[in-house]
Design a protein that fits this description.
Layout lengths: L3 E2 L9 H4 L5 H11 L3 E5 L5 H8 L3 E6 L2 H14 L4 E4 L10 E6 L10 H14 E12 L1 H6 L4 E5 L4 E9 L2 E12 L3 E12 L3 H11 L2 E5 L12 E7 L2
Parallel strand pairs: 1-10, 2-3, 2-5, 3-4, 5-6
Antiparallel strand pairs: 6-12, 7-8, 8-9, 9-10, 11-12
Bound molecules: S-adenosylmethionine (SAM).
Amino acid sequence: MEKSNLPYDVLADFYDRLISGYPYEKALEKVSSVVGRKGIDLGTGSGKFAIYLCEKGHAVVGVDSSSKMLEKARENARLAGVKTVFVQSDVMKLDFTKVDFVTAMCDVVNYLSGIKDFEKLSKKVFSALSDGGRFIFDISSEYKLKGMVGEQFFEDREDLTYLWCNYQQKNQLVMNIAYFIPCGEENYIRRDEIHKMSIYSVDELVGVLEKVGFTVKTYGEKLDKLKDDSKRVFFFCDKK
Ligand SMILES: C[S@@+](CC[C@H](N)C(=O)[O-])C[C@H]1O[C@@H](n2cnc3c(N)ncnc32)[C@H](O)[C@@H]1O
């Protein structure tokens, strides 16, 4: 394997084109309709949620650890004509300001190192929220990630070819991805990334959230009823 880059250093250039199967339209509308005015979008990525929420009149700061993803987010905000503020930080090191809502959409919580960090983050979010505030996030489910253990995947596209191998290490799914980026007529540049996704059961996350003080509702992958084989789980947590 080649020397690894930081997660999203390479993927950032392809993220918006590669991501499929995530119910953005439904989730954007739902989140926007249930949150207050001022919020923070953790792991904002290319800014989809932060930008949409700003377009709908919310005041949002997007936070991400990846400078490459933030470059995309700033470019997307410029194209959308909105003035979203983006900040580079690890969410675990962020100093939260008082807000009405915090979002962490599409696997950001899977990227935490595990349940201890999730508890620390949930406590920080709880204290940052105003009364009646909301913490909304979604994860790739235990069912989905365990089903991906040992899988190998490749895709050969015009703009990118990639190989992707998964294995489980303790409570994480480790994904080794080798990207081959076309360079001139006959050559490719190879760049590698390792992504580590923590695997959580719904019960353990709900347990932590309730201990912290949240009232929690969970939904399945299309924001519908949560089932044992739901691949995505949405958490809507209220500070009452
Ligand atoms: C799958 S992307 C989701 C992006 C965006 N929320 C969306 O819905 O499209 C996960 C993002 O979380 C960011 N991320 C992961 N761990 C992080 C951390 N500890 N602090 C800040 N950002 C993090 C990654 O850099 C990446 O941009």
